[in-house]
Each structure stands twice: as C-alpha cells, then as structure tokens.
Amino acid sequence: MSGDGEELSVRMARYVAVEEAAAPPSRVDPALAVLRGRARRRRRAWTVVAAAAAVVLSTGSFAVLRDGGGAGPAEVPAVLPTGSPTGSLPPDAYRKTAPTEQSSAAPVVGRTVLTVPARFGWLPDSVPGVTYRSGPLQVGVVAGGRPGVSTRFELTAFPVGVTPDVDPLIGAGDGLRIDAPPVNGQEAYWVSSSDPAFAAAMDTLRFRSAGGRWFQLESAGLSEADRQQVPLRVAAGVLPGDYAPPMPLALSSLPERSVVSEVELYLPLRGEDRWEVRVNFQEQLSHYLVVHAGPDLPDPPANVLPGQSFFPEECGTGGGVKWCVDSAQPVAGSEVGDPAAWLARVVPRGNDRAAWSTDVLP
Amino acid sequence: MAELTRDEEFTAFVASRAVWLRKVAYLLCADWHRADDLVQESITKLYTHWGRAGRAENRDGYARTVLVNTFLAEQRTAWWRRTRPAARPPEGTAFADPDLAVSLDLRGALAALPPRQRATVVLRYYCDLSVEQTAAELGCSSGNVKSQSSRALETLRRSSALRPLGRSGA
C-alpha cells in the first residue's frame, strides 16, 4: 500500500469513529430481514410452480384466458381512477390516454398505501405479471423479472423537475449518453458505458413524458434483436401519472403509532399466476409486522417451501383467499405486535378484482 | 427444525456483524439513515441466499460483497445518485478539533468520487483488502481496481482530504 494509501486508511478509520459518535441509533433489524427474506423465498417458490403450470397449460389455455383469444400483446388491465372505491371496471379501462401527471409519488395518501408514478401499457407476451411497489428503497413498477421469468422491465421516475444526467463513471468506463429514437415525440436516450463488457449487459432507457417528467426503464432478459426495439415500445406505452392500484385487502382499525413501511402488489396479467400482496407495518416504531395475502390454493411442493415459520404467524382463509400476519417481535400478554390481534383487523376482499379498492387504511 | 437452526444461525451472524456492515455502508453513502436501509436490504438478500453464504469460504466477505453490490445497484437504478451527500463546508472554515476537520474533509472528498471509485477506496483502504481481493468482490479485473484506486487517490490528493494534518481550514 502506498504512503497515501496508508494515510487514507488511518483517516477513514478516524472519520468513521468521529461520525459514529454522533450517529443515530441503528435501525438494522435481523429479525425483519428474516421476515422479508422468508416472504421473498415464498414468492419465489410460488412462481416456480406457477411457471411450471403455465408450461403444462400451454398456449391453448392462454387463448381462452386472454380477451379476444388472440396472441397479441398484453395490456395491463389496471386503469381504475385513483382514489375511487372500486365498482366494476370503467368503460375506458384499457384506454391509453395519459392521465394528468402529478408530483412525486407518495407512499401513503389518506387511506391509500400504494401509489406509483406511472404504469405500463403495452408489454410483450413473455411478461406474466406486474409488481407495484413502494418502500424505502424504491417506488416503481416492475414487469416480469420473477423467478422463472427472465424478461424484466423496471420503471421508475425521477422527481418532477429533475433532468437526469449520466454518471461520469459507469462500470470500468466513462458513462455515455447515446441518443435514442424519440418516445412519443419526446426526448429519449440510452445510458451506456465506454466499457464494452458493461455496455453489453446494460439496457437503460431514459425518456421524457409529454408532461416533462423523466422516466427510466431498465430491461433485462431480452434477445439481442429485441434489446432496443422492445424497450422503446414498452416506453411508448407507459402511462405517466400517479396511480394507486386497487388492493385486495383493508384494515378495519390501526393501533396507535403504527405506520406502513413497505407495500408490494403482484398482479398476473393472465390467469395462470397468483396475485400476491404484502403490506409491512411498524407498530410503536419498533415492532415489525407483515400482512400478506393471496389466493387460497394448494401450496407448492414441500421441498420448495420454507419450513416452519420462525416467527409467530396467524392465518385466516375465506372467499378463496388466504391471508396471514407475521410478527417479528410479539410481546407476551400484550396486543402490541400480536399477530392474532392484527389478523382480526384484516378485511380481505376476495379474488374478484372488481371488488378491490384503493382504500386500505381505516 | 432445520429452518429454525438456519434462522438462528443467520440472526446470530448478522447481530454480530451489523455494526461493522453499517460502518462500511456509511462510508459508501455518507448518511446513517441510508446506511441502515442499505444494510437492511443487504441482510435480507443475505438471508435469501444464506445457503450459498454458508458454503462461502469467507462469510464476512460474502456479506460485504452483497452490501457493496446493493449500493452500486442502487446507484444505477435509483435517483438517489442525484442527491449527493453533504459536501465540504465553506472554504476557510476553521475547526479547533483536527479530527472533526479531517472527518468533514474526507466526507466531502468521498462524496465527490463516483460510486464505483468510492467502493474501491472503501474496500482497499478501510477494509484493507488487497487489489486481488477487491477485484474479486467487485467482479472486475485487478487492473481495473488499480486504475480506480489511482484515479480516486489522485482526486483525494487534489482535495483537502489527504493534506497533512494541522493545516485544516488554513
């Protein structure tokens, strides 16, 4: 190590020590990691089974399940007006007209817990479903990308008024901006790198909406022939504007000092997959709970399921739905963090999406 | 029962390494709140791949690699990269405590480095990894680590982060 390297090593250690003395208490929680990790493994297991079932069903079944029965691309059937209780699908449920753009998506607005800054329009057939998510690390929409599905499109938005630039260093090379064909007549460019290896694996398209907001679409799992044309078509179909998807559950009450910390909703585009919802709460700012639900169907084989839950979990079933509450830190003799008490608050809305609503909190 | 052992083993490992991982994360992002988010996301990923981590020769190294990759992935995908951490104080500011001056200088200088250079510097000079070990953790060549380190050190030399002590704010 050079002299400067040694000096830097000493100064970094001193720097961290000084900063740590004034640092806030750590929020890192191994128990929460186990809870979330379990949920991810569970979703992965479900998708592997669903993908296998899809292969067995083959394209003949798709033709029955899809509107019109053709082999055309999928439209995301989720264009209900934001904030309105759900009745039946409105006549323009498949419209592609962009709604008025709003400011940056807020994770919780009124009774709504999940709001994303845009949604997908056209998607290729290889995408089986779309995940809407809002949490501390990301607010956005992901199409595909689940285990067993290589095609993936991740859509995020830059804050209103921000014009993104390209990082000076990407991978081992310099960051590059490469002009892309306009998307709906608006400016667009690819983010790439002078490092050939990194550039070969990178498919990031940035495009501006008619309202001026910049979006980023990251693609993966596309063939060389599709790497440019398909993302451009997906981007052209994006519907900018805050969108709150109707949710399959609600809470009848909420304990004091409880907040929503993360929400994820997976909706299959076709009938072969299962919808899933997960809403994470923090009670008293210290007790973590995960409310999750899905269709009440036979579980995947035991060899791909996680074993006995490490944390107390309470589940209920009814109306074709199974819903559960996992608690990381229940307190004996107290309702704080008690999964049973939380389970009693969960109001499932069934499998019929027409009965779902954006209203989740009491 | 095996699952219970697995979870207990994971929880014990993370509980003993969380402070260390948080420091590394802080050096990468210069914000304790974000450092907590990075560590939380990293240990969640670590849990989902705990079987693989258990087979790794160096479990600490595996955890650190997950953390660094999570940081770099966020830089690529999120708009966080636009919100650079607080940079240096105004020129001419004098500090009686030399440690505090060094701290602020280094924070500003590290924040000015591109994310991958910052990660290289943290792995090489805070975690004391060799060029080859750093290359393995970042998934790149040794030559790349050398060039990243060289660029970073040059930038830090030009800043006040590596100037001799006793002249802070002079």
TrEMBL record, chain A:
Transmembrane feature ranges: 45-65
Superkingdom assignment: Bacteria
Residue span of region Disordered: 75-106
Alphabetized UniProt keyword annotations: Membrane, Transmembrane, Transmembrane helix
The protein's name: Uncharacterized protein
Protein species of origin: Kitasatospora phosalacinea
UniProtKB/TrEMBL annotation, chain B:
Protein family per UniProt: Belongs to the sigma-70 factor family. ECF subfamily.
RNA polymerase sigma-70 region domain mapped to chain residues: 18-81
Organism per entry: Kitasatospora phosalacinea
GO MF, any single term: DNA binding
GO BP terms, alphabetized: DNA-templated transcription initiation
Pfam families per record: Sigma70_r2, Sigma70_r4_2
Segments forming a coiled coil: none
Record-linked InterPro entries: RNA_pol_sigma-70-like, RNA_pol_sigma-70_dom, RNA_pol_sigma-E_actinobac, RNA_pol_sigma70_r2, RNA_pol_sigma70_r4_t2, RNA_pol_sigma_r2, RNA_pol_sigma_r3/r4-like, WH-like_DNA-bd_sf
UniProt keywords, alphabetically: DNA-binding, Sigma factor, Transcription, Transcription regulation
Keyword Phosphoprotein: no
PANTHER family recorded: ECF RNA POLYMERASE SIGMA FACTOR SIGM (PTHR43133:SF50), RNA POLYMERASE ECF-TYPE SIGMA FACTO (PTHR43133)
Protein name: RNA polymerase sigma24 factor
Record-annotated RNA polymerase sigma factor 70 region 4 type domain positions: 105-156
